[in-house]
């Protein structure tokens, strides 16, 4: 063989090695951009946002070549949900507040319309004193809790006051029309499958000139549905051993809309995890697989891990056939590496992924923690299915807020994270 041919073969060998476990960052970016766009409406329960995301993922599954386990990729189930699809007006005197940026509404709130005087709570009151004060009001009013002034409360008294507010919100109280809390904490929203008696709002800052003579004006409409239909999206790649299955999962739902003008994009949580799931499917479709692989995009994670709970109760592949499950969430940063929930339980497999990372110098850190029921792996773990839940660390702090956007998601360690996951999957 000539020296030229040897040189060419060497270059080809290097290129093959370089491209092994390759991921398509442009595909990932495009996926995240689509899923976190306004046309997906926050992938929640307004304007069929979750279904639009599900349909997009199913289309990608088909394009990749994943097999459905039934007539299609959908596993449907029902649950109750509260939402805010239309009006969301909140004024402090003449100051119109912006939903998502200036205030949040408790997700279990009913609607409210009208203008109300305020009763401001700036110092601690036990339940009896608080009840007496509220009973003294002769007209409908809003209780404003000024947590800025209450910042020095002990944890015990703070928790007691919060419990009393929750009691009023759950059961209602005399002339009390709503609860407004001026908070020192970051505005972080969630969803709800239930509906309470009173609306409650959290306001970010107190620069709106609120005082005892202020008037609060609301025009908020909610929509509570006892039976909302959503879908897990499930695709399958057969491997050499069809009796054992590796599961890759990521939830695709997010928080949806809060009124007409505000939606929660959910770029990191969890459009990034879905992008990683799809990219892994694209890569694994074209390699030799020692085990079959099941890809699940779960619905309704954000309101109680409902999609994964439904799958565990109605598995399309029996749970005892699952060799290992990898649940992916918050895959869009990575400045400080990754965190592996259940890493301290499955120590041999955690050691394996650490070894792969050190060998190939892919991520800055691979950190471990114990069991935590904080994502869709939980229901599987409780049924003795070996599992890891992995999320990236560091970088932007946007989480469950309006700032979790595609435009600012850094994807700092996406390439290294992809390669580590891929090599770990093929080593199982």
Task: Write up this protein.
The chain is an alpha/beta fold and 428 residues long. It has 2 domains: 22-81 and 226-427, Zn peptidases (Aminopeptidase, 3-Layer(aba) Sandwich), CATH 3.40.630; 88-220, Glucose Oxidase, domain 1, CATH 3.50.30. It contains 10 helices and 16 strands. It has helices spanning 3-19, 25-35, 49-64, 127-135, 155-171, 267-284, 306-313, 347-360, 377-382, 414-427; strands at residues 74-83, 88-92, 95-96, 103-105, 112-121, 141-146, 176-182, 200-203, 215-220, 223-237, 241-251, 291-298, 322-328, 338-341, 366-369, 387-392. Strand 6, helix 5 (155-171) and strand 7 form a beta-alpha-beta unit. It starts with a helix and ends with a helix.
**Approximately how much beta-strand content do the residues carry?**
25-35%
> What is the number of helices?
10
What count of structural domains?
Answer: 2
Oligomer: single chain
- String of helices and strands: HHHEEEEEHEHEEEEEHEHEEHEHEH
CA-atom Rg in angstroms: 25 Å
Q: Order of strands across the biggest sheet?
A: 1-10-12-11-13-16-14-15
CATH architectural grouping of the largest domain: 3-Layer(aba) Sandwich
Q: Count the strands?
A: 16
* Largest sheet entry: 8 strands, mixed
Which fold name corresponds to the CATH topology of the largest domain?
Answer: Aminopeptidase
On the 0-100 scale, what is the average pLDDT? 93
């Amino acid at each position: 063989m000539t020296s030229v041919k040897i040189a060419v073969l060497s270059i080809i060998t290097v290129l093959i090695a370089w491209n092994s476990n390759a991921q398509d960052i442009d595909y990932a970016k495009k996926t995240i951009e689509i899923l976190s766009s306004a046309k997906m409406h926050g992938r929640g329960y307004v304007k069929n946002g979750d279904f639009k995301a599900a349909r997009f993922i199913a289309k990608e599954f088909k394009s990749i070549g994943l097999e459905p386990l039934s007539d299609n990729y959908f596993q449907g189930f029902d649950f109750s949900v509260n939402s805010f699809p239309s009006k969301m007006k909140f004024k402090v005197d003449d100051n119109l507040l912006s939903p998502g940026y200036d205030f949040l509404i408790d997700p279990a709130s009913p609607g409210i319309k009208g203008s109300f005087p305020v009763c401001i709570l700036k110092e601690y009151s036990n339940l009896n004193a608080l009840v007496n004060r509220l009973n003294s009001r002769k007209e409908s009013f809003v209780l404003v809790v000024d947590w800025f002034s209450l910042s020095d409360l002990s944890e015990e008294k703070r928790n007691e006051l919060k419990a009393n507010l929750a009691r009023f919100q759950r059961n209602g109280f005399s002339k009390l029309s709503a609860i407004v809390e001026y908070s020192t904490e970051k505005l972080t929203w969630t969803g709800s499958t239930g509906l309470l008696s009173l609306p409650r709002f959290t306001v970010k800052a107190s620069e709106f000139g609120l005082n005892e003579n202020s008037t609060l004006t609301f025009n908020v409409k909610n929509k509570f549905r006892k039976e909302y239909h959503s879908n897990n999206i499930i695709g399958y790649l057969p491997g050499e051993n069809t009796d054992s299955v590796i599961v890759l999962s990521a939830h695709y739902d997010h928080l949806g809309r809060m009124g007409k003008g505000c939606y929660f994009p959910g770029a990191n949580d969890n459009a990034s995890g879905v992008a990683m799931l799809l990219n892994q499917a694209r890569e694994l479709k074209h390699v030799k697989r020692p085990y079959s692989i099941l890809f699940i995009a779960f619905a309704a994670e954000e309101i109680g891990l409902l999609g994964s709970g439904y799958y565990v109760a109605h598995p399309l592949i029996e749970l005892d056939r699952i060799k290992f499950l990898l649940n992916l969430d918050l895959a869009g940063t990575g400045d400080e590496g990754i965190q592996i929930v259940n890493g301290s339980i499955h120590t041999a497999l955690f050691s394996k992924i650490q070894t792969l990372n050190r060998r190939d110098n892919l991520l800055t850190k691979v950190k471990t923690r114990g069991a935590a029921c904080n994502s869709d792996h939980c229901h599987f773990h409780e049924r003795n299915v070996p599992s890891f839940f992995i999320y990236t660390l560091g970088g932007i702090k946007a989480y469950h807020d309006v700032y979790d956007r595609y435009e600012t998601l850094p994807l700092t360690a996406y390439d290294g994270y992809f390669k580590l996951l891929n090599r770990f999957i093929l080593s199982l």
